[in-house]
Each structure stands twice: as C-alpha cells, then as structure tokens.
Specification:
Elements lengths: L1 E5 L7 E3 L11 E10 L2 E9 L2 H22 L11 H6 L6 E2 L2 H16 L9 H15 L4 H8 L6 H5 L10 E4 L4 E4 L12 H15 L4 E6 L2 E6 L8 E6 L11 E7 L3 E6 L4 E4 L2 E4 L15 E6 L2 H12 L3 H11 L2 E5 L4 E5 H6 E3 L1
Antiparallel strand pairs: 1-17, 2-10, 3-4, 4-8, 5-7, 6-7, 8-9, 9-12, 10-11, 11-18, 12-15, 13-14, 15-16, 16-17
Helix pairs in contact: 1-7, 7-8
Amino acid sequence: MRKKVFLNISLVFMMLFLVSCTKGEEYEKYDIEFFDAFDTITQIVIYEKDEKFAGKELKNMQKDFESLHKLFDKYNDYEGINNIKTINDNAGIKAVVVDEKIYNLIEDSIDNYNNISTKTNIAIGPAVDRWNEYRDLYEEGKTKEQVEEKMGSYIPTDEELNSLREFMNMDDIVLNKEEQSIYLKKKGMQLDVGSIAKGYATELVAQEAEKRGITSALISAGGNVRIIGSPKNGRDYFSVAVQNPYKKEKEENPYLTVLGTNENSVVTSGDYQRYFTVDDKRYCHIIDPDSLKPERIYRSVTIITKDSGLCDYLSTALFLSSYEEGLKICEDLGVEAIWAFPNGEVLYTKGAEKLMVEQ
C-alpha cells in the first residue's frame, strides 16, 4: 500500500505550480489573486474561450470567497449577518438562526467527527484561543520570561487547559434543522472552524463555478488546492507542488514532490504556518483535542481527494492521528495521503505515488 522515501525535508506546503502554460487551440488562461478572504492569498486560474465570461467568473469566485469568509469568521461582526462569531457570542444564551452554508458546515463537521475521526473537533475553540494568546505574545517579540511574568507561565499549564474541557464537548452543539439554527449549550463554548472552513469554502466556490459553466480551473486558497476539469493548455494535467519542508540552502530541492492530477483537491496541514518556538521547541497552531496541546508526530500531512472540504477535515485529523490510524482512514475512505515526519522520512499511499510526476 505504501512506499518509503528518505529525504531531508522541512516545510511542506501546497503552492500553485503551473508549468509553462502555453495557449491551447481555443482557450486562453485567465487568473486573479486577492487577499480578502480567510486571511490568506487566494489564486485562481481558469481556461476559457470567452474573455468577458472569464473575467466575470473570476470576479464571481472572488465574491463567493469573500462572502463565505464573513459567514465563517469567528472574530468579526458584519451588519445583517449571523456568522460563527454570532453563534459563539450567544453560547449558553440562545439558538442562532444561520445561513444554510454555516448550518451545513457545522452539521458535516459533527457527522465527520462521529463517523470518521474525533481528532477534528470544532468545539476546541477555548483551547485554541488560549494557545493563541501565548503565540501572539511571542510574535510581538516577548521573551519567555516576559510571557511568564504576564501569563503566569511561558506556555499554557495542564491545569488551565483542563479547566476548559467542559466547554469542548461536541454533544453540546445543538442543531435544529427545521429552524436552521445552532445553539451552544454552555456559556464559554467557542466554535473554531479554522481546521475546515477554508477547504469547505473552496469546495463551495468550485461547485458554484462549475454550475455557471467553468470547466477548467485551479483554485489555490492559501495552499488549499481544488481543481476543476483538466488544463486547456496542451497538458494532460494540472501540476501541484509540495514544497520541501526542511529546505535551508538555496541549492536544496525546493519540492518534496510534484503531483499531476485533475478533478482533485490537495490540502496540507503542517506545523510551519503558525507557530512559536521556546527553548528550541516548536509549538504549532494545530491543537490535539485529547491532550489540548500542539502535536509533534509529523511536520505535515497532505490529503488528496476530490472534495476540498473533506480534504481539509482529514488533513487535520490525520495530522493528529498515528500513522496506522491515518492509513486506516485513507483505506476506508479511498483517499490518498503523504506523511512527512520530523526525521525526514516520508510515507505515502500507493495512489499518491501514482500521482507523483516529479520526485
């Protein structure tokens, strides 16, 4: 089922990698880049015959991303919109009627939690927020001693983390399908959809674009890649590069591998995007719902399957699971994966190996 490769890898992240895009017989390449959604750079490339239609669709896709960002935002209020923050603000107070997209996101997350893996827990918000307080201080340049003086410890203590457990029970998220409402039973609960929202949004944007007639496109939302169709530039597939995670020198290979694929999504969870380091120990933003601490099993896990929302969910779940548990999930669901370990070892499923066009 898998093959072992030993590389000196470091930072694994997904990036848009389109190789020498020559113009097809009738199709042209059109693209857009923006930073107005999910606090990340989003790049969209489409191949179309009609320039006017292409320009309109790129703008439509950007608007869709911006709209979904507002719905899934846990930090900001928007006039006339009930979003994730609205749900959190009303924890223990009342149910909140929400847009269908939010309701479906939460419902799917609960279903996946119950049926696939309990490692992706959207009720983990209180623990995530606590770790973020520490990370923000270190990012401001505070020393270990300064953080300890302000917070009482240089990282969250077991005692303070365990005190938050009562607010992280997924069973305390109450859905009412008829009213299309969501209620958090306890005041102090906080939904955090950061592990799933970007992939879920990318999938929705892609599906809407397909309904409007887009047949060839690549969306890269901060590394969450979703492909529609195949490229119309003379090539057989889109190419998506997974960058070498431990790259330190210029001469080192920048890529772990390049995947050649169509009609697929590729999403990576890693320890390199948001983290802080204390005493040479890295604390990343991905928090294990069991230990309530950052996990250190892998440097990254990459998932390959069509649905970008499922991809995003699984990349977090597998990042927090043992290799054996993750491999079993892949086999059960028919998805592909690449695991990058801290010691430089890389394991991947047989299907992932078949997609590797460069190593």
